[in-house]
């Protein structure tokens, strides 16, 4: 028998990883935030027309709602905004979450900071720990996450050592303050590029669902799918010429625009608002 979830409210904080890109499946069987206000505030975004920006945090909310007592849904909000650095998450999103008094908060950030070579890992970990202390002191359970293992990834594999150090600090913070951790680094399935979008940074539908299952495990709950981290059947290696063409397209369409924004002091999250800034009720299914 599946254990009940003790949380009646959940708020997700962070960057694009928690905002949820690019799972836009048209599946009414799964809960999705009402994005009409977000779309109105972000008319320049192509995905605002889809109104199905759903990621692992949204899916986790659905899984937790399913484990609520019959007749009781889960109040859920998602304040995460793509491109945000960890200090901005702490200063802009944590105070809002504290006002909402949630039973559970996930705060997953630091990936954008670590992409910058001059990052001070200890400093950003210190900011994260201060936020965890504040949230725990307010009575919220906290869910953290490790970074993704970038082994074998083009260019960003250079950040692997920094991510490893940050992960160690995340585990230590969790131990000191009784927080939970999603072990994203340890997920074997995420080493498969079929889990990732064309930008090689954001997950697709299957990847989001697997991280949601990992989050259940991190919270001490049984996963809904026992095979949640089983790797996909391997594919034959692509020809070198095909890999080179794919790498060139990725650099032209994704890496170069990201670098250009950074040089101009801009972020993909500029002028954006959270997709679900207030509580909605995710109903139990079945």
What would your notes on this structure say?
There is one protein chain. This protein has 286 residues and is of the alpha/beta class. It has a single domain, classed as Rossmann fold. 40% of the residues lie in helices and 11% in strands. The protein has a six-stranded mixed sheet, with helices on both faces. Strand 4 (141-145), helix 7 and strand 5 form a beta-alpha-beta unit. Helix 3 crosses helix 8, helix 4 packs parallel to helix 6 and helix 6 runs parallel beside helix 7 (160-177). The longest helix is centred in the C-terminal third of the chain and has 24 residues, at 240-263. It is globular, with a radius of gyration of 18 Å. The relative contact order is 0.18. This is Putative secreted protein.
Would you identify the CATH architecture?
Answer: 3-Layer(aba) Sandwich
Multimeric status of the protein: single chain
User: Could you name the CATH topology?
Assistant: Rossmann fold
Largest sheet: 6 strands, mixed
H/E topology pattern: EHHHEHEHHEHEHHE
If helices are DSSP runs of H or I spanning 4 or more residues, what is the number of helices? 9
CATH class identity = Alpha Beta
- Assigned CATH superfamily: SGNH hydrolase
**Alpha-carbon Rg, integer:** 18 Å
Q: What is the straight-line distance between the termini?
A: 15 Å
Strand content: 5-15%
Structural class by SSE content: alpha/beta
Form type:
globular
* Spatial ordering of strands, largest sheet: 5-4-3-1-2-6
Poorly predicted spans: 25-33, 41-51
Can you count the beta strands? Answer: 6
């Amino acid at each position: 028998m599946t254990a009940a979830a003790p949380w009646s409210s959940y708020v997700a904080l962070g960057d694009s990883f928690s905002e949820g890109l690019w799972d836009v499946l048209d599946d009414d069987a799964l809960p999705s935030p009402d994005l009409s206000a977000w779309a109105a505030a972000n008319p320049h975004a192509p995905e605002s027309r889809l109104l199905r920006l759903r990621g692992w945090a949204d899916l986790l909310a659905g899984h937790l709602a399913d484990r609520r007592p019959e007749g009781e849904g889960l109040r859920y909000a998602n304040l995460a905004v793509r491109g945000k650095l960890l200090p901005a998450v702490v200063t802009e999103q944590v105070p809002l979450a504290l006002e909402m008094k949630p039973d559970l908060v996930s705060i997953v950030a630091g990936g954008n900071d670590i992409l910058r070579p001059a990052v001070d890992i200890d400093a950003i970990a210190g900011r994260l720990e201060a936020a965890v202390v504040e949230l725990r002191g307010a009575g919220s359970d906290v869910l953290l996450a490790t970074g993704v293992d970038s082994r074998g990834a083009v260019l960003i594999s250079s950040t692997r050592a920094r991510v490893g150090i940050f992960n160690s600090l995340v585990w230590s913070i969790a131990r000191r303050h009784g927080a939970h951790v999603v072990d994203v680094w340890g997920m074997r399935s995420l080493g498969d590029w079929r889990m990732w979008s064309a930008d090689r940074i954001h997950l697709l539908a299957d990847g989001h669902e697997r991280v949601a299952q990992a989050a259940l495990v991190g919270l001490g709950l049984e996963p809904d799918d026992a095979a949640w981290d089983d790797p996909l059947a391997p594919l034959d290696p692509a020809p070198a010429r095909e890999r080179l063409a794919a790498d060139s397209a990725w650099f032209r369409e994704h890496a170069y625009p990201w670098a250009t924004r950074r040089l101009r002091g801009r972020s993909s999250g500029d002028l954006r608002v959270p997709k679900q800034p207030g509580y909605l009720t995710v109903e139990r299914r079945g």
